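User: Hi! Is it possible to get a structure for several chains at once, not just one? Here's what I have:
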Amino acid sequence: MNVTSEKVDTFKLSLLSFCVLVFGIFALMIVIYLTASVPIFQKEDIQIYTTNVWKAVEDNPDEEFYGVLAAIYGSVYTSVLAVLVALPLSIGFAVFVIDYAPQKIREPLIVATDIMAGLPTIIYGVWGAFVLVPVLRDYVMRPLYEHFSFIPLFSFEPAGGYSFLAAGVLLGIMVTPFASSIIREAYRMVPFTYREAAFSLGATRYEATKILLGYIKPAIVAGILLAFGRAVGETVAVSLVVGNAFNIHPSLFAPGYTISSLIANQFGNAFIYGYMVSALFAAGFFLFVIGLAVNVGGLIILRRYAHAQRG
Amino acid sequence: MRRLFVLTTLILLAAVFAGCTQTQKPETQPEKTVIVGSGATFPQPQLEKWIDVYTKRNPKVQIEYTGKGSGGGQNDFKQGLVDFACSDPPLSESLWNELKKRGQPLQFPIIVGAVVVVYHIPGVENLKLDGETLAKIFMGEIEYWDNFAIKQLNPEANLPHERILVVHRSDSSGTTKIFTTYLSLVSDEWAEKVGAGKTVDWPVDKLGRGVGGKGNQGVATAVKQNPYSIGYVELSYALKENFPMVALKNKAGNFVTANEETIKFAVSMVSLSIPSPREGCKEDLKALLNAAGEKSYPIVAFSHMVIWEKYENEAKEKAIKDFVKWILTEGQKSENIVQGYVGLPEDVTSKLLAEI
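Assistant: Yes, the chains can be modeled jointly so their relative placement is included. Here is the combined structure:
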């Protein structure tokens, strides 16, 4: 008796160290990001997040001024677009693979999406820049602008095709495999009796699918969270299609910036300047904030769902 | 079972360590002097060619160069991680003074670079622009290609009524610094509103008509893919991609495109203003830009190398100095210059050699 309890304790302790390690690294990262961004907060206050300026001056740190509002705007804009693109794709794909795909092609389909998930992002980026951007520009942006430019979303004359839309669509395609695998596995787990019950009540295939998807809402929310998280953090691929321009515009067709691509672009020579490194850390810190906000939002939705289930 | 596992691990480890000792030996046997450098990517292809030719003749010297950007090289040199650094813009005075506390640094040009303006307008060749108009395009004040100011400079060209897409660097770079310094020189409005630097706040971005590409390659790709765009790259990239280049109006009022003749012409016009390598930071980027002279190309800049006057290791010092001397003599001969680069005029190299 005594021996077993001791054994359990050491096992517990050894696990605890892993937990501490994981959490400690995360906490340390936040601390580093915060302390590294202190200089810019002291210099500019909250204006680093509320203005759209990128004024780097060598040898005269007093004149430097950084405001990453455009990058924050672009990060949120493109990631929301990505989720909007990825959600129907991944749900549709999951339902098809589980319910309708013949046994022979089911596994190849799943393997294909796994490969998609594991591809280096630069591959998506190059494809995006050479194929997606010109196609979107000539067959989507130009016609929409010509006929519907009175709608604010379409109000910008597409200059080169590098735009929020291009970044959003590319990100949507990139994150689909992640969202889809979560949703697919949850959908596969729905008990067969539920399916039978739905059909026995005379539901059509569409109606039955709708009911079953209602059961896996938490998985869909988790899929969205993961997709958003991946999209917000994507760097290389976005940088190749978003335009890298400090621009805030409501239109889908305007070029913009994202926090991740800003850091990737500017970090190389940032230490030449007095405050740029700090500004980039502050921008990175905001990604933590966005991530936190999105996850808390997801938790609230899940809690409501659980509450509704019980009630 | 467990014993077997331990045994195999031991055997594997033994093999690994044996491998280590084996690979270490041959490296230390021949007494090679290893010189390490890092910095600008612009002179990298040229530097690699020099290293290749030089080390073939001097097999006892091994030279390694990593291209990571001028700023990165400056930082490595400051930290003492490398023996020499390459930087497109001359070192700043503050960095120079910091280095001087540790020893005498020497900075000297090794090759000439030119920034060229490239464009993509189907059906339009031989576009001509002056500094003022160029600045207005890059500020976003000129929106369409058939703007009056552009038409006036190109009366015979068939300019379309299409929006101009301005492509600039998204990373901080010496190319941007040279280009924006030139624009500040030729346009007071630019100097006042935007200024010069490795990265600037592009007003055209905020109009949604500017995009950034990473590196010369990124800008080149964006210009190539987007009709009605304009951008700036190093000359060698423009040649590589076969871009049409804008003929720029120089100080003498002539429209010139960048080539070996016009670039060398500009450099020899200003060779007197090149400071001694011991006072490298005194070099003024502006002196080379918009140079006087009939044939001078206006956006020309040096790419520099920075070394120490004294090294702790005597063999290393000798090897570095010999390499530098070789670059400034043999290295500048046309058979050792990579296509797209322009060597230093002889009056410049002889002046530098006398002082190193």
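Chain A touches chain B through 38 residues (CB under 8 Å). Chain A is about 75% helix and 5% strand.

User: Great, thank you!
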